[in-house]
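Good morning,

Both structures are done.
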Amino acid sequence: MNINATLLGQTIMFILFVWFCMKFVWPPIMQALSERKKQIADGLAAGERGKHELELASKRATENLREAKQRASEIIAQAEKRASQVIEEAKGTAKDESNRILVGAKAEVEQEVFRAKEALRQQVADLAIAGATKILQREVDAQTHADLLLSIRAEL
């Protein structure tokens, strides 16, 4: 066997093998690598988009929380203001009611005082008539008359 013929045969076989690999094996491998590269790039891009969207969502959540806190403080302030208004209205109503009750009580006291005065006048008139009747029933005597006036005075 000749080394040159073997070397020439191996070279031809190697060239055929390289041609076969470049024609039939290399394109599917390159296509698979290209698809894998594209898939990895898409995955990284989606990860970046997700990261960006997460940051945006976090900012929106923070903004919404701040707005909710602000709105809650406004609602609390309005509630406190309304509570003070209700308290002031209740105080005004209570004051009006107390004034009305006081006026009614004063009128009732005045009426009772008037009734008491009238009753006292009636009693004084009755006593005066009773005294006059006693004086007129007896004879007109100065001493008796003075004693009677003293007894009437004692009754009053």
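Second structure follows.
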Amino acid sequence: MSLMWKLLATMLLLSSLVNASTTGKKIENYLDNEFGDNPRILNLDVKVVSEKPLKELKGWSSYVVDVHAVLKDKPKETIKQKMIWFSNGTVISKELIDMKSGESFTDMVKPDFQKKYYKKENLIYGHANAKHRVAIFSDPMCPFCKEFAPSALTYMKKYPDTFAVYYYHYPILRIHPASAIVIRAAVVAERQGVKDVSINMYKMKINPHEKNVEKILAEFNKVTGAHVTQKEIMTASVNKQIADDNEVAKSVFVGGTPTMYFDEKIDKTRKLFKSYK
């Protein structure tokens, strides 16, 4: 390659980087103005952390954005949220749909599950060095989870050399507030060595809107055979594990339950595990 072509190639590369940086800055400014108009927000920080060109749409890219906000009524707390936005430099959109397949571009660009998220405290079945790794995000009060999780977990439990099953508590509290207590009880029971907590807790017969803690714990202990107390579920270590699970869910943009990953790739069918023994 001649010196001239090398210089031209370098200039084009630098130009593309400048354009990418400029678009990212535009997105930060736009979102900062949009969210900043909310009278409830005391302080706001918007940062584009990654950019990925869309092969299917020339000139368009996806942007992962970190949003940190402090509300006026909770000045000591910082709300952290990750978002995916799309832009071609002049237009910005929260959602893009492929009209041929009906598939959301948001699902296409979601990051893979990273190996650093496989933590000892989340391993409920199988050996850590098993042939395949499965990550499940679930809500014990979710009706879809009740149908799927117990049978899936029971199946994979039988093959510890094939499946390393990692379970992440992800309650949808706006519609299942009782799950907030159930998942805390599950963390305590698992630490106490109670078997099959993540299977048996789905047998609970309780209103998902129930707020009486003692009533929820009584039903949980009944179906799991545990003896978890209200004091035990409110410790700092339990708080940390729940928070850690939530951070992992945010990092991979879990949007609903049950969500399943098979060997770091999202499994939308939730059936891949049935192909392996």
